[in-house]
Amino acid sequence: MAAPSIPTAGSGAATGDILAGLKKKVDVGGTLFRLSLFLSLLVSLLVLVVLVSQVLVDGWPVLTTRFGDFLTTGLGSQPEISGIAQGLRGTFYLCLIVAVVAFPLGVGAAIYLEEYAPSNRLTNFIDINIRNLAGVPSVVYGILGLTIFVKGVGIGAITGGSTPLAAGLTLSALVLPVVIITTAESIRAVPQPLKEAGYGVGATQWEVIKDHVLPYAAPGILTGTLLSIARAAGEAAPLILVGTTTGFLTNIPAWWDVSQVRERFTAMPIIITTWARQPQDGFKVDGAAAAIVVLILFVVLLNSAAILLRNRFEKKRDA
Amino acid sequence: MEPAVQPVATRSLAGVATDAAPESADVVESPTVLDIQELAVYYGEFWAVRDVNLAVGENEITAIIGPSGCGKSTVLRALNRMNDLIPGARVEGRVAYHGVDLYDERVDPVEVRRRIGMVFQKPNPFPKSIYENIVYGPRIAGVSKGEFDSIVESSLQKAALWDEVKDRLADSALGLSGGQQQRLCIARAVATNPDVLLMDEPCSALDPIATGYIEDLMHEIKTEYTIVIVTHNMQQAARVSDRTAFFTAELDSDSDRRTGLLVEYDRTDRIFSNPTDERTESYVTGRFG
Amino acid sequence: MALLVADSVTGARRILDEPNPEIAAQLVEADDAIDEMHVSLLEQCYTMLAREAPVASDLRLIVSVIRVLHELERIGDLALRVAKAVDDIPLVACHPEVFEVLRALADNVAGRFLAVQRGWSAASLEPLAELDDIDPLIAFADPLVSRLMALSGDDAVRVALAAMGVGRSFDRIGDHTEIMASRLRYLVTGDPSYLAYEVTW
After folding, report:
1. pLDDT of res. B182
2. Pick from B22, B234, B273: which is nearest to C193 by CB?
3. CB-based contact (8 Å) between C185 and chain B?
4. Which of A51, A102, A234, C62 is most buried by a 10 A CB count?
5. CA of C192: which chain B residue's CA is closest?
C-alpha cells in the first residue's frame, strides 16, 4: 500500500482526499491474529469445561442423593456406605502442616536472599538451585519424604511413620521452593523509592523490611503461599510413596483431635486414586467423581481466598 | 551521638576567591555545618565523582547544579550516607558534620539520617495515612506517643500543608496530588527534627505552581534548617539559593567514563553575574549543556 | 547605532571648521534615525530579557547595552545642538583664542568617543588604553571661561553664549562617553564597582 500523501487543506475536493486517506481499512493480519488467540482461549476453556462436566455428570448421583453422608462417613467396603470423612481430615491437616512449615521457612529464606545476602556467586548459585528444585517432579519428593520423614533415624520416631506429619513435611519440602520464589519476586517488586523513604527517616534495615517491604509485598506473598497450599492439596505421588493408607481406617477422629497427625491416615488424592482402581462402578465412577468434585471445590475455595486477600491488600496499598 | 572523634578542622566560608571586587554586604560568615573535604565516590570500579571540597553554611540554602551525570545526586547522597544502600559504593575523603566525620566507623548511619533528612525527586510517601507518614520517623526514633499529634501539626505547618489536610489526616497519603505529596515528604523529613535537609531535585516532577509553593517554603524554613538542594533548573538555583556549587563531568583518561568534579563554588549572585571559571560561564548562559 | 552617532559627533566637530548649514541639516535628519534605532534596540533588549532570562556575561551585556543606548541617544542630541548653532560658529571663529580651545575640546571629545566606540565594537578594553588622562575641566573648561571673560566688544556676549553652548555640549558628550567607557569595563571585567562610576568620579 503506497504511503498516503497528505494533500494541502483548502478545497472540498481536498477534504475528500483526506477523508479517504483516514478511512478505516481492513486489517487482515490483525484480525487473523486476534481470532487465533481467541481460539486458543476457547480450546483451553473447552478442556476445563469437559473435565468439570464429566466429573459432575459422573458424580451427580452421589452428590445429589447422599452428599451429607458422603462427607461424614469413613471408608467402607461398599460404595453406598463409603464417604470421604477421613480424607477430608487428612487433607485438612496436610494443608495446615504445609502452611505452618512452608510459609515461615519460605518467607524467611526469601527475605534473607533478597535483603540480606550479599550479591555474589554463592547467592546466585543458591538462587538457581532453588529454581531447579521447584521443577523437580513431586514423585522425587515422595521418595525423599519416605527416606527421611518416614523411615529416617530419629525423625521417623517423631513423625510416627506414615502419618500426616511425615506427609505434610514432605509436601512442605515440595512447595518450599515455589514459596521462596514467589515471595522473593514479591519482595523484589517493592519499589526502591519506598525503601529509600524508609531509610531516609532513619529506619534500620529490619525496620524497613518489617514496616514497608513486607506490607507492600504481602499480597504477592499470600497469593503465592495459598496457591502453593492448593497445589499441595492435590498432589498424589508423594502421598503414595509416603505410605498413605489405601485400605480401610477404623475410626474417624474429631476435627480438633491433633493427635491424628501422628496416626495412619488417608487424604483426598489417595481416596480418588484408590477408588478409581476398584472394580465396582460405585467406587470407580460415581465415588471417585464425587470425591474429585469435592477436591476441586476445596482448591477453588483456597484460590478464591487468595485472590480476595490479594485484592484487599492491594487496595490498601495503592489507595 | 557523642563526637568521640576529634573534630576535624573546619574551614569557614570567608570570601571565596573571585576577582578583586570590593565586598559590600558579604561580611557575615555562617558557621559551617557540613564540611566536605576531598570527597570521592566510587560505584565498584566506576569513579563517579572526585575532588569535592565544599563547606555548607548554617541556615543557608546551598544549590548544586550541573549537567546530567556529573555526580550531583551522588554527592548529595553521600552527605547522609544513603550511598551505603548501593552495593559496591565506596567513599573516600571526609564529610564532617559539626566537626565529626560521618564516615567514621563508629558512626551509625541510621542516626545520621535522623539528623540529616532527605527529600527525593519523585514524591514517595508511604502507602499509609498522612498521619502515619509523619509519625513513622519519630516513632522509630523512640519519641513518645503523646507528642505525635503536635509533631504532625507542626511538621505539616512547616510544609505549608496543614490547612489542606488537617481534616483528613487518616486518609491515605496516596490520595494527595503530586505537589501535596511532595510537601508531605518534606513534612515527613522535618518530623525527625533534623538539622539539615537534603533535597534531590524536589520540584522536577511538579508543575510550576507546586514548584512555587515549595520554593516559598524553602525560604521560610531556611531559618530553622540548613538546606542543600540539587537542581537541574538553573533559574531555580538562582532564585532560591545563597550559594551555588557548579559541577561538571570530565572524561577519565583511563576508562571511557566521565567522572564528576566540582568546578566552582561561590555566592549565588556571583555565579550568575560573574562566574570565575569559564566552564561555569558556559553552563549558566546555556552555551553548553 | 554607535556608528550613526559617531558620524554625528564627527559631523559636529566638522561644523566647527565648516559651518555649513547643509551639514547641519544632515545632522538633524540623522538624529531622527538615531532616535528610532534607540527605541527599536531597547525593545529588542527587553524582549531578550523576557524570553531568555540571561545570566552572567549575557546579563551584563544586556544591562550595559540598555544603559549605553541611552548615552548614545543623548550624545546624538548634544551633537545636534552643536549643529543647530551653525549660524553662530563663524562669529566665534573670529576670536581665534577662544575658537582654538573649542576645537581642541572637540578634537579631544571626538577622539575619546571614537576610541570608546571601537572598544564597544570589539568588546575589548584595548582601545580604551589610548585614552589620555586629561581632566577636561583643567584642560578646556577653565581656559575657555577665562578667555571668554577676557572678551570685549559688541558681540562679546553673543560670542560668549555661543561658545559656552558649544563647549558645554562637547563637554557633556565627553561625560556620556566616560559613562559608556565605564559600562564597557563592567561588561568585560564583571567588576560591579564600575557601575558606580557616576557616584565615585
Report:
1. 95
2. B22
3. no
4. A102
5. B21
Full domain range(s) for residue C70:
2-200
Interface check B17 vs C, CB under 8 A: no
Chains B and A touch, contact meaning at least 3 pairs of CB atoms under 8 angstroms apart: yes
Measure the N-to-C terminal CA separation of chain C; round to a whole number of Å. 27
Q: Out of A197-201, B47-51, B200-204, C24-28, which region has the weakest mean confidence (pLDDT)? A: C24-28
End-to-end CA distance of chain B: 42
Q: Three-class SS of residue B232?
A: coil
* Number of domains chain C is built from: 1
- How close C112 comes to chain B (CA, Å)? 27
The distance of C126 to chain B (nearest Cα, Å) reads 19
| Å between A207 CA and nearest CA of chain B | 8
CB contact, 8 Å: B249 with chain A?
Answer: no
Domain assignment of residue A96, given as a range: 88-267
Q: Closest-CA residue in chain C for B238? A: C55
Question: Does residue A60 belong to any structural domain of this protein?
Answer: no
Which run of H or of E encompasses B270?
helix B268-273
The alpha carbon of residue C9 is apart from the nearest alpha carbon of chain B, in Å, by: 33
C63: left (phi over 0), alpha (psi -120 to 50) or beta: alpha
**Whole-angstrom Cα distance, residue C31 to residue C44?**
20
Strand order in the sheet with B243-251: B100-101, B89-97, B32-43, B46-57, B258-267, B243-251, B61-65, B226-230, B196-200, B116-119
pLDDT of residue B9: 40
CB–CB of B120 and A119 under 8 A?
Answer: no
B127/chain A closest Cα distance in angstroms: 5
Domain membership flag for residue A253: yes
Of residues A209 and B24, more confidence is placed in: A209
Q: What pLDDT, in 10s, does the model give residues B241-274?
A: 999 999 999 887 776 788 999 999 999 999 998 8
Q: What is the pTM of this model?
A: 0.80
Note whether A319 contacts B127, CB cutoff 8 Å: yes
DSSP A284: I
C-alpha to C-alpha distance for B255 and B47, rounded to whole angstroms: 9
Domains, in order of start, for chain B? 32-284 (3.40.50.300)
For the stretch A5-62, pLDDT in tens is 555 555 556 788 888 888 888 888 999 999 999 999 999 999 999 999 999 998 888 8
ipTM given for this complex: 0.86
Which range scores top for mean pLDDT: A22-31, A136-145, C129-138?
A136-145
C-chain residues near B273 (CB < 8 A): 55-56, 59-60, 190, 192
Q: How many domains does chain A have?
A: 1
Interface test with C, best of B284, B287, B288 (most C CBs within 10 A): B284
Those residues whose C-beta lies under 8 Å from the C-beta of residue B262, and which sit 6 or more positions away, are: B51, B52, B53, B54, B245, B246, B247
Alpha helices in B192-232 (DSSP H): 208-221
Chain A interface disruption, residue of B81, B110, B114, most A CBs within 10 A:
B110
